[in-house]
């Protein structure tokens, strides 16, 4: 006996399976936006550590500030070195960098509260930036 089409039970099973798969995809897609923002912030911190921090640190050494970047004139020139991620809740400020490394350079609120902490540079070491997840109280590596 030749079959020309699906019967009703087979169609119902196919529809149920497609419904389950689509619900899983929708949940995954919703979470991707959250992870994308965190990944963007991780990338931003990497840029600060690899290029922006050393460049400003070198300028600080040349200016006679012994490597410290906690000066307002360096804040004014940040846009020369990188694009700051928009929608921050605390304005980017190198003046907040301190020796303990808990100075808040900039903060964001996406699905969680994030801060970029800054340890000030010195004569031998450039500044260091770390991403802090304030909501969960952990540093994001």
What would your notes on this structure say?
By secondary structure, the protein is α+β, with helices and mostly antiparallel strands. The protein has one domain. It is built from two helices and five strands. A five-stranded antiparallel β-sheet has the order 1-2-3-4-5, with helices on one face. It has helices spanning 8-62, 72-76, and strands at 88-90, 103-109, 113-119, 128-133, 138-140.
| Assembly context of the chains | single chain
Strands, count: 5
Mean pLDDT across every amino acid position = 90
Number of helices: 2
Overall outline: rod-shaped
- Range of strand content: 15-25%
Distance between the termini: 63 Å
Number of domains: 1
Structural class: alpha+beta
User: Low-confidence segments, ≥5 residues, pLDDT <50?
Assistant: none
Q: Rg to the nearest angstrom?
A: 24 Å
Q: Reading side by side through the largest sheet, how are the strands ordered? A: 1-2-3-4-5
Strand count, sense and closure of the main sheet? Answer: 5 strands, antiparallel
Question: Residue share in helices?
Answer: 40-55%
Helix and strand sequence = HHEEEEE
């Amino acid at each position: 006996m030749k079959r020309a089409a699906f019967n009703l039970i087979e169609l119902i099973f196919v529809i149920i399976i497609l419904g389950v798969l689509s619900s899983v995809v929708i949940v995954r897609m919703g979470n991707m936006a959250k992870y994308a923002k965190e990944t963007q912030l991780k990338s931003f911190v990497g840029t600060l550590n690899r290029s922006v921090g050393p460049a400003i640190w070198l300028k600080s050494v040349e200016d006679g500030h012994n490597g410290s970047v906690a000066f307002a004139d360096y804040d004014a020139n940040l846009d020369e070195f990188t694009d700051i991620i928009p929608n921050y809740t605390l304005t980017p400020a190198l003046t907040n960098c301190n020796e303990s490394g808990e100075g808040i350079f900039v903060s964001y609120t996406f699905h969680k509260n994030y801060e970029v902490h800054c340890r000030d540079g010195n004569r031998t070491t450039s500044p260091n930036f770390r991403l802090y997840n304030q909501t969960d109280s952990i540093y994001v590596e």
